[in-house]
């Protein structure tokens, strides 16, 4: 592997990478399935080693880590300052990278990876080796290693899933890794929506308590942690970037965290919004037409294009129960929206109703 991407992987996993470097790493990961598999293994090694009972100087830890991985010291490198990075974590990741980069080795550990992909238009319920029950929504991929449940319980999610986590007799935490955040849990019930191709992250806890860790602000490189308990919902909105990595719409003033991160208490009725899809219905509460269209695309396996961007901003609240086809769903929205649409196989074009 090239030394350049090696350095970026190390910085990305340990929280040192800039936003631009993070995009380079993500492009590299998505370019090849082998790249993704190698990254996931290294990523798992790092996160399983966090939460030691003691803390160390983060500068010394990074220096040791850099030395072990042969990274040349650079001026201006931002070092993460979080007390939960341990010496063991640094050494473990360094050793893993040494094996990972060994040109004479085969795979990192020789373990096979289980990959479950749910196509658009369907959902799937499954039981993991530890007894955890998972419902996977349309267009979702779940990955985990064959040794899951023995020494670790780490899964990797791209999409939406509802989990009923089985308690571990050995108190092995359940780690759910998404594109942006890591969720830690021992035994609870929650729903998480984290599609890599969408900017927003949503999580709702039905029972128990979890922690969500990651970078909650592009203005602050340091990772943070948020705790959620029963009947709490976390919503994180990420500014949308165009192809030149610039924000599509720059706000007139710098937004504060409350505009991008919301942790709210909800009623039992409102909680249905976050698990309705497991019972074949969708619940929306003040959602934009564009976001609803994204759900429709996965649910009905179609592609929706808006000719007028203003239509995308319309907001709706309501429940779609047992709506079997996209035409019926669009007809419901059309009752309160000045729109018309055309359907050509799986291609749908929505435009404003001509006056």
TrEMBL record:
Domain (FecR protein): residue spans on this chain: 116-210
Classification via InterPro entries: FecR, FecR_C, Ferrdict_sens_TM
Source species, domain of life: Bacteria
Membrane among keywords: yes
Entries under Pfam families matching the protein: FecR, FecR_C
GO molecular function: sigma factor antagonist activity
Transmembrane segments: 82-101
Residue ranges annotated for the Protein FecR C-terminal domain, each copy included: 282-350
Keywords: Membrane, Transmembrane, Transmembrane helix
Official protein name in the record: Anti-sigma factor
């Amino acid at each position: 592997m090239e030394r350049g991407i090696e350095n970026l992987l190390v910085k990305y996993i340990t929280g040192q990478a800039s936003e631009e470097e993070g995009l380079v790493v993500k492009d590299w990961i998505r370019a090849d399935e082998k790249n993704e598999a190698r990254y996931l293994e290294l990523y798992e090694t790092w996160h399983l080693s966090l939460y030691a009972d003691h803390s160390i100087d983060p500068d010394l830890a990074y220096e040791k880590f850099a030395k072990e991985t042969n990274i040349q010291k650079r001026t201006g490198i931002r070092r993460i300052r979080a007390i939960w990075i341990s010496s063991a974590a640094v050494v473990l990741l360094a050793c893993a990278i040494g094996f990972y980069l060994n040109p004479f080795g085969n795979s990192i550990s020789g373990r096979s990876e289980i990959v479950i992909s749910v196509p658009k238009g369907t959902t799937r319920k499954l039981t993991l080796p530890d007894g955890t029950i998972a419902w996977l929504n349309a267009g979702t991929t779940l990955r985990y290693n064959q040794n899951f449940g023995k020494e670790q319980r780490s899964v990797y999610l791209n999409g939406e899933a509802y989990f009923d986590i089985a308690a571990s007799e050995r108190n092995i935490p359940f780690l759910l890794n998404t594109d942006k955040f890591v969720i830690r849990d021992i035994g609870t019930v929650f729903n998480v929506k984290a599609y890599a191709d969408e900017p927003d992250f949503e999580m709702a806890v039905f029972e128990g308590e979890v922690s969500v860790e990651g970078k909650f602000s592009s203005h602050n490189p340091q990772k943070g942690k948020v705790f959620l308990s029963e009947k709490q919902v976390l919503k994180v909105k990420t500014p949308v970037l165009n192809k030149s990595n610039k924000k599509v719409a720059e706000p007139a003033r710098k937004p504060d965290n409350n505009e991008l991160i919301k942790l709210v208490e909800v009623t039992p009725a409102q909680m249905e919004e976050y698990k309705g899809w497991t019972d074949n219905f969708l619940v929306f509460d003040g959602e934009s037409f564009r976001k609803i269209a994204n759900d429709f695309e996965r649910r009905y396996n179609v592609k929706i294009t808006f000719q007028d961007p203003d239509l995308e901003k319309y907001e709706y609240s309501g429940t779609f129960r047992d709506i079997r086809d996209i035409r019926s769903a669009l007809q419901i929205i059309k009752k309160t929206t000045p729109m018309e649409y055309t359907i050509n196989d799986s291609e749908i074009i929505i435009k404003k109703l001509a006056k």
